[in-house]
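Predict the 3D structure for this chain.
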Amino acid sequence: MQVGSEFQCEIEKTVLGGDGLARVGGEVVFLPRTLPGEKLIGRVTVAKKNFSRAEVVRFGVTNPHRIEAACPCFGRCPGCRYLHTDYAYETELKGKQLDDALTAAGLAPEAGVVLPPAAPEPSVGYRNKIVLHVHKAGRHVRLGYVAADNTTVTDIEQCPLAHPAINGELARVRKDNSFLHSLHEGMDVTFRHTAFDGVKFWRNRPPGNMTWLREETPFGQLSVPCGSFFQVNPAGAAILIEEFRSLLAGYSPSRVIDLYAGAGLFGCAAASAGVGEILAVESDPEAAAAAHYNLRRFGIADPRVIAGDAAEAFAAASPGAGTMLVVDPPRGGLSPAAVRAIVGKGPELLVYISCNPGSWIRDAVRLGRGGYRLRRLLPVNLFPRTEHFELFSFWTRPAKG
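Done. Predicted structure below.
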């Protein structure tokens, strides 16, 4: 296909990333903001060797789940990919994307292992953190998200995904000329909200004297450094925590090792459930300090927290019988060294939480080859209206003789 050429097609399915997939003369074409079953006229915008990308010229037949996008930036801002459909159907599409990814990877979980996707509410106004970027052209200031070209900044007055209190503070500072004059080209502005602290914001990095935030969880309050990671969707995080706590109740581990621990979310959940021995590993020193503080608050008198690399720390650990390992790595997933350490000496019980189905699939194949058996896989629509979703997985492996 050639750039600029027009064609007729029907959308077969929505793939990971949110684009619709169609086939034109045997060639694969991806079209954003389309839904399965829709018939349309498209125009090629990018032609590659194995696929093309296109835009919609005109719809003939639309999907009954299509709705009007409730944001003027939809299509220009790269964040939201599903504002054109209802939330229940978006969640259904993401479940089908997971099924397709499992099949493509040759993974065939046993019946009942893959659960229907969980859909935390609300589907908008849930984000407790947003990061906006600054572009200045003369006196004009753009404050918003970076577009798909990784260069253009889409000016954002309000974000439908942000907590209403964040949008309120954003509206206030955008009217403040002194604030706008304080911004410089390439700067980031971060807004965070908690029920206890309200809204805090900072330019680039939080000031060193900024007090830690207090985040609410189903088992109590955690202290989290402003610049450290915490789940952006409280309702979605609660689902992950309850899944974890149900496994703790069912298997009664005597020890929990929490790799990529952040401020200690899962380690503290285990402590609150009565697990007396916790090892937490976190590469961010400030988050590791918070994990130590939080574990003490939840009854671990002498918490063992390592501020360092997860793979190295676990390779040096002795899991022993009765240990449950919890891993919640960044989007890149487990490093090869981490997989080797887990497979080489990992415990019988493994909880793997992932924000990236692609890297999880890769690691799942490796864990399966290493003797682990997938027992439970719950997709959680932790990032409604975006292309992303979370996976909560539970694995077991027979004890080594």
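Residues 129-211 form one domain.
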